[in-house]
Each structure stands twice: as C-alpha cells, then as structure tokens.
Design goal:
326 residues; Rossmann fold; elongated
C-alpha cells in the first residue's frame, strides 16, 4: 500500500505571488563574491532547481533563502517577507533538508520527529499525531521505535525529510537530497518528493545529479561563477543548448592525435558541434544515423558507435565545462 503525502498547509498561511523572489541578489565574503547579482522567482507548487559546479554560488543562495545568511546587496523576499527583518517568522514556515543528516542517532525514529515538533510549538498530542502521519508517509512506521544509528542511508534521508515536514512548510529547501544513496533509495525519495509537490509543497533544491534534476524540476537555473548562465525547464534547456541526439564514437585512431581532430572537423559539418574526449568523440546532431553514414563514407575507422538522446548533463557540461572546480 502506498502512503499518502501529508496534507498541505492551511489556506490561511498561504502567500500570494512568488514564494521566493530575488532581484540583483549578491552575497560577498570580503573580496570574494559568491553570488553576483542573480534574479530568481519561484512560483507556488513549483519544483525549482539550482545546478552548478562547486563554487558556483548554489549553497550561498540557498542559505540566503533559508534566512541563515543575510544578502550583501539586492532584494530578496521569501514568503512575501524580508529574510533579514522577518527571518524567524519565515523559518517557521520553511522545511529544510540539509546536505548532511543532522538526526539524533541516540533517539528513536519517532523521538526524532517528536523532539523536532516541539521546537515548532506543537502540543504533545498534536506532535504524536503528526509523527505518526509523517512516519507513514516516509514508510518508517515499522521502524518507529528503533534507534536511528543502524538505519540505512535511504531510511535516514527519508526520516530527515519527514522531520522537515513537521511544521507543514510552504517551501521545502533540499540541499543535494540524494547524495550518497544507492539507485533504489534515490528513486524512493524521488517518489516521496513528487507526491509532496502534487500536494502543493514548493520544492527548492540543489543537486549534482542531472537525472534527478530532469525527474524533479519543473524549472531550474544553471549557475557558474556566482551568476545564472541559463534558465528554463529541463526540456527547454536541452532544446536551446544541445541537439536531439548525441553520437558517441570510439575511433581506431590514436586518442588525441591529428586523425581524431580531423574526424571531428569533418563530422562537425553535419552536426551542431563535436567534442573530443580522451576516449571518444562526441557528435551533437539531430540525425545521428546521417552522421554515422558520413563517417563511413569518409573512411573514418570507427570501433564502436552509440546513439543516445541529449540530456541535461550535456547542457550542464556545455555551459560550465568539464574542468574540475575545487
């Protein structure tokens, strides 16, 4: 039996207009500018994502939205209020799932939710009822009286999300919610987050998983160097910055040699662009079969060929590069 998502916040708590709105938002740490004047608007019920390499400004932006780090410049409104002036009131209406679980491993699963509920002023009776509801949603009812420490990573993550929902938040902030989880646990969490969105909870998340962004996000921004370099739905970004297909060719020629460079130049004529990697040649095109036929016609020795659809990862790497950023 599939558990139902928790009920959304009462209408009286609802805020009209964008739930998160930033204009020219800046965050600087001394001489270093982490966020360099971005504009963002997140609508109610939307799943909105921040993508970007390390140091792009994602976490700094999330901390400002979460009212734990004041903006240096620009304007920011969360739930229609000023995070600097009304931070405490805003935080009472947010749910936060940090990158690393902050559960009390000496307490039971149920006690973790009960203690958190008391922080928000829920009565003991209401806290017990809410804990039962959330543990059912997280599929942890049968582990309610177990200590947290021996739970699997996926169970701990589901408990962290359940705990973040104890105050019926209008906005749920998720910082890399499935990092370190196995594929099965990731898909279970995706299902839970999708159900929350269907119930009207607004999701704002960061992730390094491009398939996760494609699955969860209605709209997203790609950040690089503290700025937004692209914005749109996953499909819009793929259509705008990539091609319908990608042809991956492994060539008989020596990797990095002149023959590979010439092959890339030849095949680029019938494609959007080519990219030479250490082990293969990527050809971005709307007709992979035609490019493969052209490679054969030109006598290019191909060891193997793979055709796949373009993904958000292709867009991400095109916009931010393949160089590691520490």
């Amino acid at each position: 039996m599939t558990s139902a998502a928790p009920a959304p916040a009462p209408p009286a708590q609802r805020t009209p207009g964008p739930l998160v709105e930033a204009r020219g938002l800046v965050k600087a740490f001394g001489d270093f500018t982490a966020v360099a004047g971005i504009d963002v608007a997140v609508a109610r019920g939307e799943a909105f994502g921040f993508l970007g390499p390390n140091g792009a400004g994602k976490s700094s932006t999330m901390r400002m939205i979460g009212c734990v780090s004041p903006p240096t410049a620009g304007t920011l409104r969360v739930l229609g209020a000023d995070p600097v002036r009304d931070g405490s009131a805003i935080r009472a209406r947010l749910g936060v799932v940090p990158q690393r679980d902050t559960l009390d491993e000496e307490l039971t699963v149920r006690e973790n939710v009960l203690v958190y509920a008391r922080y928000f002023g829920l009565s003991r009776a209401r806290a017990r009822a809410k804990a039962a509801e959330l543990l059912e949603f997280a599929q942890l009812t049968d582990r309610a009286d177990d200590k947290v420490e021996p739970l699997s990573g996926g169970m701990k993550r589901r408990l962290t999300i359940a705990r973040a929902l104890v105050n019926d938040p209008e906005v749920l902030l998720l910082d890399e919610p499935t990092t370190g989880l196995d594929p099965q646990a990731r898909h279970v969490l995706w299902d839970k987050l999708f159900r929350l969105k269907r119930q009207g909870v607004t999701l704002v998340l960061t992730t390094h998983y491009m398939d996760e962004a494609e699955q969860l996000c209605d709209r997203l921004v790609v950040m690089d160097g503290g700025r937004i370099v692209a914005e749109g739905s996953p499909r819009q970004l793929i259509e705008r910055y990539s091609t319908r297909e990608v042809l991956e060719l492994r060539l008989a020629a020596e990797p990095g040699g002149e023959e590979v460079a010439r092959a890339a130049e030849v095949l680029a004529g019938g494609a959007g662009r080519t990219e030479v990697l250490p082990d293969r040649l990527l050809v971005y095109t709307d007709d992979a079969d035609a490019v493969a036929a052209e490679a054969e016609r030109r006598g290019i020795a191909v060891l193997s060929a793979l055709t796949r659809r373009s993904t958000l990862e292709d867009v991400f790497l095109h916009l931010t590069g393949r160089t590691l950023v520490d």
